[in-house]
């Protein structure tokens, strides 16, 4: 599918509500469960989304619009949430994600992005030349990939509880 | 994780809201997109969930509680939604899923399921002996597996739009 700014913004605006409906108020063990050693829980994922909101998407869009290819992006720390989330409840992280996302979308609107601006290029520290459109499409895909991950982590907690039905749920066999 | 009825019911009650936040009001192409030939769109998945609500979970729980192992379940038609959804909009399917789920959860509550009842057995036409607890755990896992699927289908629509970032999103390469 072609990237369309209005559709992308719409999908981005939905993710806090999706995380809320999956997680807000669930029994605590469902927010800290994971898929085994060195995998993330829904709690970890919320912290990661907040960190990306603060250091990745809008800051990088600004670098593209203000500096073009001349100034490479700061590398993104994919494990920063381990520090960021310390001492916070899952409910606090959900609120923080929701307010961070609102600010990001307001900042995006202020950028008054035109189809011309979408083709502007920046420099990713590892991937090289990228466009603003690719950055924004990645923001959307990144959101959805973490909705996939949260629901998959939760789903797999019942790998044993489903008994013989495991046969019909390949996701529980780590096959997809 | 051990199956717990209260937690399971809580998660089941959330799925209509999750589907709404992902899909209600999105541009039509996002509800009919899929992952290639013979794969399901979010629209197809909504129809499938409605059909399961009407013919699978509660009807099978009733068979277990009323007939035990003596009466095998009716086989579940995994393609019935193709007929069921005909002529309905995605918004209509979301409303139908929401009201069907409410009825199912009311029916579940009326069954006054105790820990003793959870161990009762029924006969699956293909899988053989199963317990009520396994049926209800499967209901939860089935819901979450379709949240995974809807968000994965949507995510993959931007496989090309993300450009070089595809490298960092294995989900776009059909690797997970």
Keywords, please?
homodimer, 176 residues, mainly alpha, two-stranded antiparallel sheet, 2 strands, 57% helix, 5% strand, elongated
Give the gist of this structure.
Two copies of one chain form a homodimer. Chain A contains eight helices and two strands. With 176 residues, chain A is mainly alpha-helical.
The rounded distance between the terminal residues' Cα atoms of chain A is 23 Å
Largest sheet of chain A: 2 strands, antiparallel
Quick one: how many beta strands of chain A? Answer: 2
Most residues in contact: chain pair: A-B, 55 and 55 residues
- Structural class call of chain A reads mainly alpha
Helix/strand layout:
The structure is a homodimer of 176-residue chains.
Chain A: H1 5-23, H2 29-32, H3 42-55, H4 57-67, H5 81-84, H6 90-110, H7 115-118, E1 121-124, E2 128-131, H8 132-155
Antiparallel strand pairs in A: 1-2
Helix pairs in contact in A: 1-6, 1-8, 3-4, 3-6, 4-8
Structure characterization notes:
- The structure is a homodimer of 176-residue chains.
- With 176 residues, chain A is mostly helical.
- In chain A, 57% of the residues lie in helices and 5% in strands.
- The first copy, chain A, has helices spanning 5-23, 29-32, 42-55, 57-67, 81-84, 90-110, 115-118, 132-155, and strands at 121-124, 128-131.
- In chain A, strands 1-2 form a two-stranded antiparallel sheet.
- In chain A, strand 1 (121-124) and strand 2 (128-131) form a beta hairpin.
- Chain A starts with a helix and ends in a 21-residue tail after the last helix.
- The model of chain A has no long low-confidence stretch (mean pLDDT 95).
- Chains A and B meet through helix 1, strand 2 and helix 8 of A and helix 1, strand 2 and helix 8 of B.
